[in-house]
Amino acid sequence: MERRNSFIFSFTAIMLFMIIGLGCKEQTGVTEPGFGTNKNFSQALMKSADNSQSTNSFTQNYNEEDAMALSGTLGKDIYPIRVGQHLKLVERNMTVVKDSTTATGTLVQKFEGELIIAGTLKPPVQGTHTHVDTVIHKPISTTITRLIKFKKIANTGNDTKDWKVTAISLPVGGTEGDDILITKLTLTAQDGSTVVINDPNAFFFNVGSDNNDDDNDEDDDNENHVTGSGVGIGIGLHGWHDLFTNYTKNQPVKLEVELLSKSSDDDFLTITYGAMMDGKFRTKEKFNLKSSIQEGTYYRKVYERNWKTHSYAGRMHAVINALPKSVVYDSNTSVVEKTWGIPYKVK
Description:
With 347 residues, the chain is mainly beta. The protein contains four helices and 17 strands. The strands form two sheets. Strands 1, 2, 3, 4, 5, 6, 9, 10, 12, 13, 16 and 17 form a twelve-stranded mixed beta sheet that branches. The chain has a five-stranded antiparallel beta sheet with strand order 8-7-11-15-14, with no helix packed on it. Strand 14 and strand 15 form a beta hairpin. It is globular.
């Protein structure tokens, strides 16, 4: 396992924590999707989605595969040093609504696995490295939903060839439970431009030439750039070439996440970013609490994180996970988690 100094904090134990098991890349054991009355057509579109690198980029990045290093503060039962989730895709279904030339599929993916918390039951001593003496494994079952737009491009009679993926919404989901809810995400680039996301499933981007990883990947069909549900530079669908989250190398980006939490404590909010489409080379960091205002049974909180894009170019994916503090710091609390995913490109 490659360990990166950028996400090793001063008190983190210098150790590698490998999780043995199956990753999301392995499809063996995945329940075959049910498609209803449009079974053959939906199966063909599911195959097209499976072949889309952009569609699968979130799946590769959602499973962290190992517990990554993070900073932590004093907890109730355990002082976390490394926290990560090991997930396996176990079920997927897609329902499709179509007309003669376009179709929209709702893809629902179910993941099961563990949240792994490696830490110590002893309070850390300031100025010294803290060593892991306890590893907590908590079961997690989570569901992610995203919309996929298709367009008919030929009339061969083979739906797999006749239809192609043109646009994909951002993924959103999590476990059952409403102890914590993500409501808004704001990204502010170095030039002051902002992207505001309130509903990931209403926020589309155009995949363009999906299998290319260079800057010449705009789709050659102008119909894919018409006004739609996407938000970015104006309102429309944006390809990887002109993606709304399109940044230069080593560019500072500020992220603000607004959420509702039933706890007055600081929540455990992280971003895992810098990963290529296959989920490699990731950095994981915590957000800092900026404000908290009680509203009835919830606290409306704003978290902030400043980060820099990596020094290498490519298509990447960021995943934001929000958990109540007790999930990570109390060994007896079951997992409640909410997740949003964001594709971006470094050029």
